[in-house]
Amino acid sequence: MVGGGDWNWRQNPDPDWQKLYRRFDAYVPWNVGNHWLDKSGVKHATTSYWADDRYECERNGTLWIPSVYPGFSWDNLQQKPPGSTLIARRGGQFLWEQFHELAKLGVDSVYVAMFDEVDEGTAIFKVTSDPPTQGHFVGYDGLPSDWYLRLVGEGIQMLRGKRPITAEIPITPSRGCLALH
């Protein structure tokens, strides 16, 4: 049985919840929206608890499947002012930082949130570079429409040991073919 839920599941004080968490065969802690700000105000996904999560799951025989996300926004879904809830994608760097942290931990499985969830600005599927003007949409900032699909593919290759662990995104945006560093 696979469970999914709070990113801070280990801190839940309810003993019944703790028993439930330990009954899962696998657990996906939902990390979407969980972030911190660096000194310059740039948002990064919170990953500082991942090593302890992994250890706790391994100790209990549970497969830990961390969730990663490319960025986030509730502007559209909750009709907020444009940019007010944005966790910027930074051209894929926000997502790549998460893959990098997981690769350093030796993790080989990940849940990517989400393939098609445009209402929360987490979609990785192909989108237009020319969205409708009657609404506010989180776009890909002029990047190719398949950029995030390609980036996830590269991240998976890194997790599986088929690409060196690197903090730098190993591909560049290009139309048509991949440009490798």
**Tally of strands:** 9
Q: Could you state the order of secondary-structure elements as H and E?
A: EHEEEHEEHEHEE
Uncertain segments are 176-181
How is the biggest beta sheet arranged? 3 strands, parallel
CATH topology label? TIM Barrel
Total helical elements: 4
The CATH first-level class comes to: Alpha Beta
Q: First CA to last CA: what distance?
A: 41 Å
- The domain count comes to 1
Proportion of helical residues? 10-25%
How would the global form be characterised? globular
**CA radius of gyration:** 17 Å
Name the CATH superfamily classification: Glycosidases
Average pLDDT number: 91
- Architecture (CATH level 2) name: Alpha-Beta Barrel
Structural class, judged by helices and strands? alpha/beta
Précis, in short:
By secondary structure, this protein is α/β, with parallel strands linked by helices.
Helices and strands in order:
Layout: E1 2-6, H1 15-21, E2 26-30, E3 35-37, E4 43-45, H2 50-59, E5 63-64, E6 67-68, H3 93-105, E7 111-112, H4 147-159, E8 171-172, E9 179-180
Parallel strand pairs: 1-2, 2-5, 6-7
Antiparallel strand pairs: 3-4, 8-9
Helix pairs in contact: 3-4
